Amino acid sequence: MSQKVLLSEKEINIILHRLACQLLENHLDFSNTVLIGIQPRGTFVAERLTKILKEEYKVKHIDLGFLDITFYRDDFRRGDKTLEATATSINFLVEDKNVVLIDDVLYTGRSINAALTALQSFGRPKDVELLTLIDRRFSRHLPIQPNYRGRQVDAINNEKVKVMWKENDGKDVIYLINK
Amino acid sequence: MSELSVKHLLGIKYLNEKDIQLIFETADHFKEVINRSIKKVPSLRDITIANIFFENSTRTKLSFELAEKRLSADVINFSAGQSSVKKGETLIDTVNNILSMKVDMVVMRHPNPGAGIFLSKHVNASIVNAGDGAHEHPTQALLDSYSIREKLGDVAGKNVVIVGDILHSRVALSNIFALKLQGANVKVCGPKTLLPKHVESLGVEVETDLRKALNWCDVANMLRIQNERLDISYFPTTREYTQQFGVNRTLLESLNKEIVIMHPGPINRGVEITSDVADSNQSIILNQVENGVAIRMAVIYLLASKIK
User: Can you give the residue range of the structural domain that contains B296?
Assistant: First the structure.
């Protein structure tokens, strides 16, 4: 197994700021926009972006939610292990809102497909956009593309992208691991 | 990633502490789901479940059916009263006929203790015991412990007294197993005629003075007097039972602390508890019913994920 650094802490920080600016450009004051981080790891990206938007770009209020997609996944009973859920916390309705789904790595697109189904339990959004930090472009199983992407990666299937965060893993870094 | 240690839910006796924690954590997520405006998830859309009830039930049957539907499973219901069982068909034949219609899971209530265990050895489906005679009623015990955990934060170290007909009660036995497994202290209280011999061997204490028991406990689980199971007279009159083992407001107010009142339902109002107790803030009876759906969703979800 070998691993190389795909993005360093500094690069991640620059990318997060760029993504925040792109969101700001399209959504201005976020009055009709909600950010939803996909559990378990999209929540870190969503929290970081919210922090940057509030502290550095002075957005007063952002609705931020976390969505667990476990019960909506299409691989229930297809793997060896029980799919274990994490918490959903969405304390607002998404009816008629502009929703930005946020995840760390876009790979097959199946998680996003599940997230779109799960989102229907919280109302009918006006539109839904997708933001991902890493986009593995040659591995999609479904016609799903991000509206905002941090970095596009041409990883092959036996490679794994591992995103680490200070608050969870001790440091900010993204590795490309060859299994 | 963890999973249940069992393929069937036949009784609490066959679970370990980790299984119970996993069921509770999964139920937490389902409780959030059933409080949304859209209360349904698609997880079990390719699973079919048969609810087979050889004995009457309202709450448990509705709760299971609702849990299954909230998980998007296909559900068929079967009551012994309207079936070929009356024509002499055996249990295995009945169930195998249902399974031939491609059913993946069976939820069964049966008047004979051990019916679920017997079935699990002879048919190829995941079995959930929804009550087998005076033996076990595992989902009831799970939802009872879950409700205690929700109300008091934890089950470990809490003092719980189970009051009433311990002898005929599957709720009592499953509760004793579940509570002991989670580290609670358990006492049983009732007329001596309704306490099984050697019940102490399960690690519980016996108390025949209700006031003493209530003063000791954090939670009192009041069982129903099951007239349908009382083939002989175990106490002189219902009135006398109520005087000695019924809980009323005056009794509760004379205690040195506020305790939590539970009841598995259906309540005989004025027998084991009075209406003002059942409907008071101390009672979590309706929370138990709500939690029942979340617990059954968790159990079915976790067992279904083991069906390949």
Answer: 12-137+289-304
